[in-house]
Amino acid sequence: MSTRKLVSASTANLLIPISGLLVSPFLSRELGPEGRGLYAALTLPIVVCGWIGTYGLQDALSYHVREGRLSRRAAAKVSLVAMAPLGVLAVGLMAVLGLFIFPDPTRHGQFLTLALFAPLHVLANLFIGALTGGSDIRGLNLVKVVPALVRTALVIFCCLAFDLSAYQAGLIFIGSVLTGLVIGLVRLRSAVEVPSGESAPPDPVPTGSLIRYALTCLPGVLAAISSARLDQVVGLPLIGARELGYYAVAVSLAELPMVVATAARTVLMGRPAGESSRDTTQVARLAVLASVVICGLLALSAGFAVPLVFGADFTPAVAPTVILCAGTLLYACMTIYSAALLAHNRPGWSSAALVTGSVVGILALLALAPLGAVGAALASLAGYAVAMIIAGVAVGRVPALGSLRMLTVPYEGDVRLVKEKVARMLEGVRPTAAAVGGGADKADLPGTGSPATSAGSPVSRAVALYRRIGPGTTGVAVLIVLAWTRVLAPQVMQLVDTGRPAFNSREDLVPPLGEAAGNGLTLLFLLLAAGLGVHGLWRRRPAGWRWLAVGVAPLLAVEVAGLLHGQTPGPVAVALPLAAFAIWAQRPREEVLGVIGVLGGLTALVSMVFAAARPDLALISGAAAGEKSVLLGGLLAGPYLHSNVLGIALALSVAFVFHLRHPGLRWTCLALILAALLWTGSRTSQLAVGAVLLTYVLLRLFRHRSWPASVTLAAGALLVVVVPLITTDPESFSERGRIWAALLDRWRDSPIVGWGPKLFQQDPALAAELGGQFNHGHNVMVQLLVVGGLLALVAFGLLCWAAWRRSAMLAAQGRPAALLFLVGLVHVSWLEASHIPTTLSGYVTWLPLLTIALAGPTALLDAPASPARPGAASLPGSRPRPVPWPAPDGLADSHPDTQGGPDGGRPTHVALSGTTATAGPDDDAQKINVPRR
């Protein structure tokens, strides 16, 4: 249980510095080194005041709740009452400190405004103390994580959408604590205090005991906070804004391993008395071991990680990062020692160690200030070392703890436990069929670690896998791979043969061999899709034709618009409607979309290797990169014609990584995609991936309830619809305002059917209106209106609505990938539209949408049947109704009730599921243009 709590608390605590790490590159590029230093000077004093302003009451609440001397509801009352005097002291302290840090009246006024939020941070930390004492790890995680996630999303969005100042970013940062306060109050007031049959804690609040314990802890609290953050608070006048910016960046990286020690502290202080010392302190030993490994890896990678993440301007932050990694290891030991002392009622000894270390750190900072960021890092290292040594000596004098070995050096059993858990994680054993929800013979796709397919030769494994998943799922997986190859193969041949074309060039430079390869791949796709459709009709005689109509409606609307305006569709325009037909007829499992996750990781890997081998072809720099800051010599475009196009492909692939059940493959693909995406500099795609990861965390925190993801999805859809309509400045959003205004004016001349998919290629006058040569509308709503009119937009909306219904049900069952894809899609689509052409170039949008909506009720086949209607599957809060869908491919044998009879007629199985429509891409979709930045 200790290990689980450590992992849970560490994961939640890790999200806080990770959120800072995600925000930091955006803020660093938005504000520059000096602005980044100013942001740290404005915000860190408020955060530090939130810790200091509890005056030891946070630890006092933890101790008294842990010992049963104070109920959690009473702790909430104490926190609310104490906030008034403590908040007044906090604001007064900030006002005085502001005079020293900000002599400029304007900056001082901004700082005073932010200081008004200090009482809220004090209250949040009091709530954290009460939850820690109650060992409410889940509530503690929510109070810490939710504000960090909200802050991350808002800051990144504002950096991308607006010109953000350090003060405005500070307002977002400081105000985000409100969400944590609401959650903390609800958790404390709604907590079940004691199990039934046991006596409740005493009602009177032990005020005297709380005050005495808090005052004893106060020196240590002041010292610990000053050791951790005082260097940044007073750094502006001592080392200057630029050096403070470097130091703040180093801290944001080096503090990542601190989360393990912080989690261990939470677990140690929340453990009930009476357990053996060795079992109680196992969490501390594991935390030290993890800190050693993480700090070492971080120090080794700092040389390339800092310039890659924060930009070449922050290269001077490498040396402070390495120094602070060593300091973080000492800080971890110090934190664990002080937690053990507090848990064993030795607050005075803890305070003495922390105070001494803080004094040493402050004196060292004053002496080493001329060295700038390096001097500040060395000062922190010295302070941590002194505090750790004194705390270690004090721990050795506590009889219940025995020795330092019990807190720091792993025993043989600890190492064996770690090895077992790592081995179990790396095995990637496929979950049982019941857990997956697919019946007794349900198997996974490649990369899921199925033991049934892990033995024998590669050929025998492939044959066994094919037999288990069936021809339908296999065929759709091959369709996805063919579409991906069709997009990339001709592009690679063009780059190698003729080089990278000029920005927004309309010249066709694909060599004859590339055209032949593309045509051959298109033909294979068409033949396979047609064959799968016929096979499905012959095998199952599927019903539900209206859902197929929903699937092809957006595609047909766009092509009909082209016919009405004299545009002749090519053979490739038939590819996606045929794919819709094949998916509808075969009903593959939605896990087949994990293939897109693998292809996303492969695309990222190929792009980065291509950049290492041929940077002149795979990177964009100079005028083509616009105003973006380039990383490692340029913006990563890989085999695509622009870095934004690669970014979109990666952003739309990342959700399907969560379909991969083999941990090694899943996390490798995710790491590759995130690294390549950062290198692309595609801010819209980075925002979309941030929304996907935020949604994933919310789904985990709220136990797979789909409403947080639906809220994120609705927010993205609102941006898609509203932003182009309210934007009046032609220069807004990197000149997208001009593009939207021109295209909406053009749409008003043909509002019902639009102008067809080849409008951008066949109307030379349009380039003058748009301000350049572009091939799409840079917003999905604008794109659909101009090429397909209201008919296409309504059909596409119906498709997305149907896909959302099914995705929400899957997410509620613990299968979030489909819903995460929709979140990424809408957040990419409010500033881009290159991913929805009507040919195979749009495979990463249309094929997932079709599969999600038309794949069939795979996840519902094992749902409990309704007593009133045998064979009906239902979800909580939904009314079962028949769905004219056959069983997904490969499941008919294990679910005979899904077949109408031996001939495979209509199923009697019922489930709630939405369906959707589909649309497709265009041959020139690779000639995707983006405004200069």
TrEMBL record:
Subcellular location, record wording: Cell membrane
Entry keyword annotation includes Endoplasmic reticulum: no
Domain O-antigen ligase-related as annotated: residue spans: 670-796
Keywords: Cell membrane, Membrane, Transmembrane, Transmembrane helix
Chain segments annotated as transmembrane: 38-57, 78-102, 114-133, 145-164, 170-188, 288-311, 317-340, 352-371, 377-396, 476-496, 516-538, 545-564, 570-585, 592-613, 640-658, 665-681, 687-702, 709-727, 780-804
Composition bias, Low complexity: 865-878
UniProt-recorded name of the protein: Membrane protein involved in the export of O-antigen and teichoic acid
